[in-house]
Amino acid sequence: MSRKFTYILRWCGYGFLLMAGLDILQSFVPLQISSPLWGMATMSNLVERVPIPILGFLFVFWGEEEDRRIWEEKFLPALLWLCLGLGIVFLLMMPSIAINTFRIDRANTQQIDRTLQQEEQQLGQLSNQINQANLEQLRAIATQLKSVGMAVNIDQPQPQLKADILVQISNARTQMPDRAAALKNNQILELSKKSLKLFLGALIAGVLYLQIWRHSSWIKKLN
To answer: Of 71, 135, 154, 201, which has the fewest beta carbons less than 10 angstroms from its beta carbon?
Structure first.
């Protein structure tokens, strides 16, 4: 391979590392360390951008010590230690991913439970209103129930209309626990898929960085 191509490859590597550094800085703004959602999003951004710095290190280290400038001999050891540090950081992300997954799942579950409780209270209040409502009010309530998928025939006498509405509300209250359980299962499934992908991505990234560091021991001999 020509010397000129090696120079171009190395400069591309420095450019890739610089762009990766800017992306990493952007990922941490704004800083929200206490938020598990922010933590997962930040780690996801870092893992997704791994190919660029990996290529950057490979291009910079290409050709080993051949035709290195003086400033490179001073700078490359720092890059080598940075590569080691990144490998360790990505491996340390793995327990953090597991912890944040648990925290997000717990927050999602609590949110679903709060929503279920609010809906239960609203349906209870609606039942009380129905018992005191006249025909016109019952028809207005039935129209509202139709908009949320509860089929009620409004063209019937008041006693039957009231009974039908109460049956629909009772059915809705009975189905709420099953609906909440299904929603929780769907959310944990999606969260688990994303977390597993992120977990494996962090593992692969950490191993790649450590392998580059391991097989670039020639840099230690530059000084």
So the answer is: 71
* DSSP assignment letter at 215: T
Q: Is 68 helix (H, G, I), strand (E, B) or coil?
A: coil
Structure tokens at 62: 């290409």
Distance, in Å, from the CA atom of 62 to the CA atom of 84, rounded to the nearest integer, reads 17
Instruction: Read off the pTM.
Output: 0.81
Tally of CB atoms within 10 A around 102: 13
Distance CA(100)–CA(111), nearest Å, equals 16
Long-range contacts of 120-124 (CB under 8 A, 24+ apart): 120/173, 120/176, 123/169, 123/172, 123/173
A 10 A CB-CB count for 2 gives 7
Summarize pLDDT for 9-60 with one digit per residue, the tens. Answer: 999 999 999 999 999 888 888 888 888 999 999 999 999 999 999 999 999 9
Domain range spanning residue 150?
3-221
